[in-house]
Design a protein that fits this description.
Helices cover 37% and strands 14% of the residues. The chain has helices spanning 6-11, 16-25, 59-69, 87-96, 111-116, 137-140, 165-168, 179-190, 205-213, 233-247, 260-267, 280-284, 326-338, 340-350, 377-386, 399-410, 419-436, and strands at residues 48-54, 73-79, 103-107, 144-145, 148-149, 152-163, 219-222, 225-228, 273-277, 295-298, 311-319, 441-443. Keywords: Cell membrane, Lipoprotein, Membrane, Palmitate, Signal.
């Protein structure tokens, strides 16, 4: 992620509308070194209690492992709905009331939105930089900025292709290396009454990941505001590709990944594959009768020398603005996300996505998988995928609204609107969304 700053985010057109959002939220503001004094650590021997809000299952068991090793710090985990399913509104409401947890799980793509409403602490003031060397540089770049560090990488979702060899073998095919090969195989599979994959018209996150893999960079901050370019060659190539795939019935839009209908189609061999984040292995493993019938391959590339993967998902652990114990909160966040003990506990109890620390993938992910036919796919496929990302992709302050706009456009595909048209229209709507929030934005000159 290209380096930017919270100051630049604010300078990039944070006008009256955006200030109104900040006032409405009533947040205390980030504990930034250049914004307010830092809070001192607890006195020696003093007991500190922290709360951590997360949508990960059994996260208290991870906190318990930390508590056992740190007798003066006790972390209580509270489950919240994932992200926009209710977790973020709950966080915003708590911040507005002057409360909230000490720490919270916030997705990479949502972190800039919390920064703009002064909802997260600048952890650089509390020594976060000392942990930088532990993390994947591309992930560290998504939480660190020249004037601060606003979260600790928790997990990511490098993408791969989960597929059924027997279904591909209906047409004598193996896992494709390029998207062009993917389309060719998909066309042949239709003659065998199978689809190679599905394409969700209601969830734009997959399309966004495909565009990022192709080399797109939709938004970037500049000294005079934000610069947008969603109609670059890479994005339009991806949109045209999937327009053709849908129009030619190579891919189905009738089902969405991991829906009940998806599981039924996958179990019957009507779906040959799904290209998704590494976390999809647990979901694929729930396909009825699928044990031994699935394998994992690298995500198809747009060009032979292009990026080998893209990220789908990924979260941070951020310290919230109203925390009275940011020192201790950072200590817990760093332990949980960057140590062997913390990561192993997260994998064992909470099933997190891909580890943010190169070289630590979790003991349970080291060996072969019985479900995937004895394949050691994490080492063979996911590790290389995590190293072949688009480093220029970055998130922006109205990301979720942008996703909603794009998804609304994609839903009109059945009525004759192309994905290309939807992307072009979405760009204009996103520009309007920025300006409605008082943010300056301009279209990149072609």
């Amino acid at each position: 992620m290209p380096l930017t700053t919270r100051r630049r985010l604010l300078k990039a057109g944070l006008g009256a509308a955006a200030l109104g959002v900040m006032t409405a939220c009533g947040t205390a503001g980030p504990r930034s070194a250049d914004a307010m004094p830092t809070i001192a650590p607890a006195a020696p021997g003093e007991k500190v209690r922290l709360t951590y809000w997360s949508w990960l299952k059994d996260i208290q068991r991870v906190a318990d492992a930390f508590n056992a090793m740190h007798p003066n710090i006790h972390v209580e985990a509270v489950w919240i709905p994932s992200g926009n399913q209710g977790g973020y509104p709950k966080l915003y409401s708590a911040l507005a009331a002057g409360g909230g947890p000490d720490l919270a799980q916030i997705e990479f793509r949502t972190l800039p939105e919390f920064m703009l409403v002064n909802g997260v602490v600048d952890l650089a003031a509390y020594g976060a930089q000392q942990y930088a060397h532990r993390y994947d540089p591309s992930l560290w770049g998504q939480v660190s900025f020249p004037n601060g560090i606003f979260g600790m990488p928790q997990d990511s979702g490098p993408m791969a292709m989960f597929y059924q060899p027997e279904t591909l073998d209906k047409v004598g095919a193996v896992a494709p290396e390029t998207w062009a090969q993917w389309a060719e195989i998909g066309s042949e599979l239709r003659q065998a009454n199978s689809y190679i994959d599905c394409f969700s018209l209601s969830d734009a996150s997959y399309f966004v990941s495909y565009a990022a893999q192709a080399g797109a960079q939709w938004l970037r901050p500049s000294d005079d505001g934000w610069v947008i370019n969603m109609t670059d060659d890479a994005t339009l190539e991806v949109a045209r590709f999937f327009d053709r795939a849908i129009d030619e019935d190579v891919v189905t839009t009738a089902i969405s990944p991991f829906s009940p209908s998806w599981y039924a189609a996958a179990a019957s061999g009507q779906l040959a594959s799904v290209t998704s984040g590494n976390w999809a292995d647990a979901l694929v493993s729930s396909v009825a009768g699928g044990q031994g019938k699935w394998r994992v391959a690298s995500m198809p590339k747009w060009t032979p020398g292009g990026y080998g993967s893209s990220y789908l998902g990924g979260s941070t652990v951020a310290v919230l603005a109203n925390s009275r114990h940011p020192h201790e909160a950072l200590e817990f966040a760093a332990w949980m996300t960057s140590t062997e003990a913390g990561i192993s506990n997260e994998i064992a109890h909470s099933g997190i996505g891909w580890s943010p620390v190169p070289g630590i993938i979790g003991e349970s992910r080291e060996g072969p998988s019985e479900f995937f036919g004895g394949q050691s796919y994490n080492k063979q496929v996911i590790v290389p995928a995590s190293k072949s990302q688009n480093p220029n992709w970055s998130w922006w302050p109205v990301t979720q609204q942008s996703f909603n706009i794009l998804s609304d456009g994609f839903r009109r595909k059945a009525a004759g609107t192309s994905l290309v048209d939807s992307v072009v229209s979405a760009e204009q709507e996103i520009i309007a969304a920025f300006r409605n929030k008082g943010l300056k934005i301009r279209k990149e000159a072609s």
